[in-house]
Amino acid sequence: MKLLEKSQIRSWDLDTIDHQNISSFDLMLRAASVFSNWFQSLFFDKTRTIHVFCGMGNNGGDGFCIASLLAKAGYEVNVYLFQFNNRFSDDNLSRQKEVESFDKFEKFTPFPLEQKDLIIDALLGSGINGPLKGEYLKLVSWLNALPNKIISIDIPSGMDPDQPTSGSFVHADHVLSFEIPKISFFLNENSDYIKNWDYRSIHLNPGFVEDLKVMNYLIDYDLVKSILRQRKATENKKDFGFAQFCGGSPGMLGSVILASKAAMRCGLGRLAVSTPSIYHSSLFSSCPEAMAQADLPKNVSNLVDFQLVNEHVDAIAIGPGLSSAKESVRYIDEFLKANKKPAVLDADALNIISRNKWQPRIGAYSIISPHKEEFERLFGTCDSHYSRIQKQIEKSKELNIFIILKGAHTTISSPDGSCYYNNTGNVGMGTAGSGDVLTGMLLSFLAQGYTPLETCILAVYLHGSAGDSAAFKYGNIALIASDIIEFIPSVIKNINGK
Ligand SMILES: NC(=O)C1=CN([C@@H]2O[C@H](COP(=O)(O)OP(=O)(O)OC[C@H]3O[C@@H](n4cnc5c(N)ncnc54)[C@H](O)[C@@H]3O)[C@@H](O)[C@H]2O)[C@@H](O)CC1
Ligand SMILES: [K+]
User: Fold this and answer.
1) Which residues bind (6S)-NADPHX (predicted)?
2) Per mean pLDDT, which range of 37-51, 151-165, 310-324, 431-445 is the poorest?
């Protein structure tokens, strides 16, 4: 799904008005009906009074329209207009006539509300053009200190839709965004202040976005379904890729087993694992589907010899559990020099690269999957999640690589400057081995012939979905990396139907 910036959303509204021959007044009614239906499915208890706080733009207009619809549906509704200047939108003025009465504030003064009552926030929408000041600031600070549940229309009032907000905004319990989520919902800076968000279509003209060039995308079910291939009955294991996983060192076998199992569960045809030979029997007992390769790094004199063993390998993943011992450094050096295969680099491979400043040597179109600390070791510290994402995009372009920045909202950046936001996964996945599972999944899809971008999208989304299913069963405290692997089959089957 394409994610639009606020100026593009405004153009989409105008294009819809033009193409569908609908007035902005009627488009507002459409949006209000969508919100009102969503609201009623969530808050069906009509004994709580609903207080609708309206501003002066179209978001406030939505508020008046929604207040009228909810009153008609049998809710007890109070409406307040905060008129802190004289700049009403036309549709706002027209919609004011639809509610029987409302209280008007030209200056904000606090007033009592019952704790169980609900607040609908329709003060400001996507038309925000700077930080809140004066009366708005007083009002929003008061709202944020109340114990009442706040439900925001389109976006929490005061929040910038595209980037971190420089100032205060409404801390919402629920937000219903129109048509698509806002980019800023995915920033860690905002995560603590939007408890739940959702989006519903208001049937804006689909033709407008089809042709629109955007740089930001949300990875959603439809995108993943469109990428994941169906198998032909006549295909065999040779059609599903031959992958090589290089990792593990004394005391670090777990990552190898987790990555191997995850790779096989994502449909890989054949897997060769290069890990110290003392671990081969343990590997076979945990993942008998894998083949073991020569010792690594001890018996490997150079990568070319090593690759001759795997002359038909389709993709390589390197790094997890490798340690940063001298032999591993030499091995990564050789790998960067000689590798021509599609590659995934993670964990100790990234640590070795950052320590030796070998970032420019990473092969074109490789995938790297750092978490925040690994990312900052590679590319320097950043003062916010937003600035880290900006640097991620810049480095993808500069180094011609795909970067997966792992976190609460994992982002994938591509050499063309585009950025994909993921919305699956949960806090329980911050556990040892979770990243190794992702590396195995990446390796699997890459070896199966998916492009690096498709590989990143599939692996990141499915990893998060499997983690969500695991958290549903075990809870996000008890969840361990093996649980994620347990649910890979069902999430793939749910999407692919097979
Ligand atoms: N345009 C359309 O056709 C539709 C718009 N809809 C609603 O309209 C909203 C956007 O409407 P508007 O563009 O009127 O935007 P707002 O409702 O956000 O109002 C913007 C106005 O608020 C004032 N303002 C901006 N920043 C401020 C600040 N920091 N402090 C104080 N005042 C500030 C300015 O006067 C600006 O014109 C959406 O969020 C959505 O709720 C929906 O009704 C769907 C259809
Ligand atoms: K709002």
Assistant:
1) 58-62, 125-131, 136, 154, 321, 371, 436
2) 310-324
